[in-house]
Amino acid sequence: MAANHMPVSDVRIEVSNGIYDLTDASGRYIVSELPEQTYTLVPSNSPWVFQPTSASLTIPPYDHWQNFWILPAPQTIQLIPGTSAQITFWEIQGTDTVVQFPQDAVTVTTTVVLTPTLANGGMDNKFTGHAFNIAAYRGEEQLSEFFFNVPITITIEYSDYDLRAVTDEALLNMQTWDGSTWGEAALTCDPPLPYSYDFNGNVITLSICQSGRFALFGPTNKISIPLLYKAP
Fold first, then answer.
1. Beta carbons of 114 and 99 less than 8 angstroms apart
2. What is the DSSP letter of 139?
């Protein structure tokens, strides 16, 4: 059980027949002496949510390990023209992310759902453990590529643990996913607004103008491993 690879204790892992175990300080759990069949493992620890939400385990084989990731629960807010609003969610490691919507963010009443998630940045970028989807709705209809009327502000507090593989804190940046690649999130605004960094407080602030999937990355060292061939 982990949050950005940091182990989490006291998460209940329940098997489909009612047997369960709690994760220890290293994030590990043990469910033993189970008859040979297929089980469904379900993690729980309110108010957190998990990816995956459940996992299938078949015995045999034995010594099977299933990992889960713990995340804040999704939050929903209604944006009303002329009224400012804010969403705050807390990470399991004690940091928080704040999304602020100014009073002119929408011209029509709009529902926004913010869902924390996971991300992978590839070889040159290290995911710092902070990612979320912002989705906009009018009634039951989701508005794809929804643009806010004015920029919204995102403030992310990160931990030193989040930076363990990041080579330059000053190059932390928010990226947005276009369905195939990551791109600079600040470019969703025209003109783009600069980042604000508080290195003493471990806080980064930026503005975006569009719904979508966002994740905080930092540069990391890329290691190349040569392939050696033995001559015949």
1. yes
2. T
Q: Does residue 197 share a domain with residue 88?
A: yes
Q: What is the pTM of this model?
A: 0.85
Closest-CA residue to 44 (of 66, 28, 68): 68
CA–CA gap between residue 112 and residue 135 (Å, rounded): 6
Over residues 27-53, the pLDDT tens digits come to 888 877 788 888 888 999 988 999 999
Q: What residue numbers bound the domain in which 111 lies?
A: 75-219
CA pair distance 42, 31, nearest whole angstrom = 12
Distance CA 116, CA 193 (A): 24
Cα distance from N-terminal residue to C-terminal residue, the chain: 47
Kindly state whether residues 160 and 117 are assigned to the same domain. Answer: yes
Three-state secondary-structure class, residue 169: helix
